[in-house]
Amino acid sequence: MRARKQKVKTYLDKLRQRINIIIHGVNTPMGKIFDIALLFIILLSVLLVLLESVQNLDDQYHDILVLAEWVITIFFTIEYILRIVSTRKPLKYMLSFYGIIDLISIMPMYLSFFIPSTKILSVVRALRLLRLFRILNLGNFTGQAAELKLAINASRTAITVFVYFIIIISILLGAVMYVVEPVESGFTSIPTSIYWCIVTLTTVGYGDIAPVTALGKGIASLIMIMGYGIIAVPTGIVTAQVANGKNRRKVYAPNCPTCKAVPSSDDAHFCHNCGTKLGAILK
Amino acid sequence: MRARKQKVKTYLDKLRQRINIIIHGVNTPMGKIFDIALLFIILLSVLLVLLESVQNLDDQYHDILVLAEWVITIFFTIEYILRIVSTRKPLKYMLSFYGIIDLISIMPMYLSFFIPSTKILSVVRALRLLRLFRILNLGNFTGQAAELKLAINASRTAITVFVYFIIIISILLGAVMYVVEPVESGFTSIPTSIYWCIVTLTTVGYGDIAPVTALGKGIASLIMIMGYGIIAVPTGIVTAQVANGKNRRKVYAPNCPTCKAVPSSDDAHFCHNCGTKLGAILK
Amino acid sequence: MRARKQKVKTYLDKLRQRINIIIHGVNTPMGKIFDIALLFIILLSVLLVLLESVQNLDDQYHDILVLAEWVITIFFTIEYILRIVSTRKPLKYMLSFYGIIDLISIMPMYLSFFIPSTKILSVVRALRLLRLFRILNLGNFTGQAAELKLAINASRTAITVFVYFIIIISILLGAVMYVVEPVESGFTSIPTSIYWCIVTLTTVGYGDIAPVTALGKGIASLIMIMGYGIIAVPTGIVTAQVANGKNRRKVYAPNCPTCKAVPSSDDAHFCHNCGTKLGAILK
Amino acid sequence: MRARKQKVKTYLDKLRQRINIIIHGVNTPMGKIFDIALLFIILLSVLLVLLESVQNLDDQYHDILVLAEWVITIFFTIEYILRIVSTRKPLKYMLSFYGIIDLISIMPMYLSFFIPSTKILSVVRALRLLRLFRILNLGNFTGQAAELKLAINASRTAITVFVYFIIIISILLGAVMYVVEPVESGFTSIPTSIYWCIVTLTTVGYGDIAPVTALGKGIASLIMIMGYGIIAVPTGIVTAQVANGKNRRKVYAPNCPTCKAVPSSDDAHFCHNCGTKLGAILK
């Protein structure tokens, strides 16, 4: 009896290991096939959510779409359970970014029994598409993403300051346009005018609200030319950061810890000024 | 009697000092709490001005909004008086940027007794939000803002020249479009055509005015492609400036004062050409 | 008899050679004249396709346009046959980019006997305009195009990652706007909302769909400001690549193959650290 | 008699010299005052042309506007004659850029006697505003403009190639959209579709023509995202050029004429490799 139990346990352990290799593995052939198949099913499931929202299609193929939705939900549920079962640290997976996304991807369908309007939440599945990066070009992407992230991080403060200025400018100019333009031209309140100002400064320009008076058009022209110059600033900041990032991969010797002199070359071993030994850092 | 007067004066002096620490201080705990509380009230007061301009809300909650506006105005008035009283140089504060903004922020409500339409002026409060920078990330922001300012200052002449060219081009192309397009398509006058031209060159494109004739569409296409190329120029200028700014923080040795030779390295102490001692400058 | 045949063959060979020089040659005077004449006919033929699609013109000048179309098609057919006949490797030409374009440029007119709607395919002729580069500024263009291609290639991964992120963001934000906005404002389905989101993020902003609720306008404002910051990233990447490309033409010494030290100068012949001889590479 | 003639001639010569100083001079006080006064009159005259095109204003103030136009035209005529008379090389002035602009600025009013519709030509006066640069910040501007011109010149080939590609892409995509979209949505002909494509690629987006079918919206989305990436390329090219321009002002030692080695430093006097004397060039 005990021997049998042991045997079952060993069998289960092996099964878990095998599932683990298939689901979590990337470099194994089975793991790769599973990942690509999963990616297609995710794409299909996202497409399904999009199509369900189209009235015509939903009217005609309602039953088929609901059936497909259930098939996918059940498939994802099984996958979610297998992921939890097969890993040795189920909680770590469940609380990870992908673990939460995976859960939210299947919840809406079950919740829709109780609260019908939650079905839209299944669009969160789109985030599962991020797995693509892990699957397709692992090494290359990691480097690229890291570089992008570095550039964005480095520019963050400058861009925050910038966005903040834009919002304050939009409030002031929005109020001015609200006073200048008649209500009929769409500038019905200051918040609406601020919305128009952002639409204009970012050069989106829907045209649902547009100045009609001569003075309003004049101010709008100034705002646009200003926006034209303003758009250059965040671009410049990010560009400089990306360009700097490209140069940063080299090893730079830090300033001399003793006399603060800039080293004579990027890979100097001793300070050329006072002779202190220099350590190398990767900026 | 005199002793009592002296005591009162000492007490008042201490009070002033205490208010000073709370209102003007940044690094003290009380000063920080006051600053953050003030920021929330400013945000609230700006929101209030925005909401008052929405017809629906003003109709429904007119009394509440007016009451809130009075409460905030009185609070700001007290704050303004305390700021004047607590500082040793009241005139310096009153004539400073923030001093004037603080005054304009409370004036409209009192003026609205006499001239009702001045209420909109209270939107100037939005400028008080600039204090955020002083409160939140002091050190970091100062550097970022200084860098931005440097880049914008350095690019100013180039951008001014550029904007000037755009205006002249817009006048000429506006006149051309006015001649080419019929009045029905919205090109009712040359100023309107210039407005359209700026809307197009900056890629805002409202669509309230758009060419309808074949020739007009052809010219518009040329303007757009031109604008496409033109937008690159100010961006390029600012980017080059920002990128230069990043490199400028290093210490650069100036050219040799004797023979004008470029130093052999950025931290050379003597000219490699004629032996003159070099001073270091921070460009 | 045999001698005559030989003579005819020699004559044909000479003719083929001559045609070859005229059609395929670039640097010969006859080849240049032919190329420029061909370019004008291609331009004319493209113009013809465009004009045929204009209802007014087609109604009035239908017969003339059809005639011109036939004249050009027959001319292009003869040219196509001559190109095949005159070259020694007809299959290589036929399967080349230009060979396929040349065939597709003449097919539609013959196909239009059987399938009338294929006529539009003749717009592919526009691709024949690419020959312009070969004809006009050969040397200069090759360098420029190569540089552009290098910059685009180098930025490809970063931009792909970026576009992918934009699509995922658009799906999520599209779903949010679909929930927030009423159907009347144009957000009729999630795919339509995604379309709107792309129109907004790229700052195109048609205005055929635009938010009408306060919440929708707020979210739209956030999307626009985000897009404003986002547009900076691909620009920054390409700029950094182009700028790097400009600097890359110099000869750079590689890192030392023995001790991996960065060379002391760009044209060092020996490693300054361990004395290993360095080879020069063109990055 | 002869003496008197001589005296008159001397007087005229002095007068001419004086006029010359006032009209052509920039650094003399009188010349500066004249230039600034002239600039205001030019501004006024441009404003006049703009206002005349506004129907309302022209109806109300027709007589005043015509009078003002005549006063300015006569003033400009006198100025033009004085410019010719006062200079020693009248033909050189008359055939210069400003000479031709000055003539075109006064012609329309006189021509309007014979051909009424030529009055619009007087908008060319806007070009006279370019004198502003000469008047206001001479030294600074010359440098800035030269730098801009250098950057634009250097980027010209790359941008030309680029614009050419955009046009070919627009023709192909325009034809595709013409086939995909129904006539009712505004895609009435291929030229119109091309116009729409340019409006979209440049992110102007009027919205007068917009896709209505699902397929059309899909293709439009692809075009927009493509345009998003494309806009980065000319920006990158110009930026790299401007940034390079900034670095170019330094004196660079050329590669060694004997052994082609890159000099050891930017101001080396002798080749560090073979000892050849190096000349300095300003790139």
Layout of SSEs?
The structure is a homotetramer of 283-residue chains.
Chain A: H1 2-24, H2 29-52, H3 55-86, H4 90-94, H5 97-111, H6 131-135, H7 138-180, H8 190-201, H9 214-230, H10 232-248
Helix pairs in contact in A: 1-2, 1-3, 2-3, 3-5, 7-8, 7-10
Short descriptors:
Four Helix Bundle (Hemerythrin (Met), subunit A), mainly alpha, 0% strand, Helix Hairpins, disordered C terminus, 68% helix, 283 residues
Q: Structural class given helices, strands, pairing of chain A?
A: mainly alpha
How would you state the average pLDDT of chain A, rounded? 78
* Overall number of domains of chain A: 3
Flag low-confidence runs of chain A: 248-254, 279-283
Short description:
The structure is a homotetramer of 283-residue chains. Chain A is mostly helical and 283 residues long. The first copy, chain A, has 3 domains: 136 residues, Four Helix Bundle (Hemerythrin (Met), subunit A), CATH 1.20.120; 94 residues, Helix Hairpins; 33 residues, no CATH class.
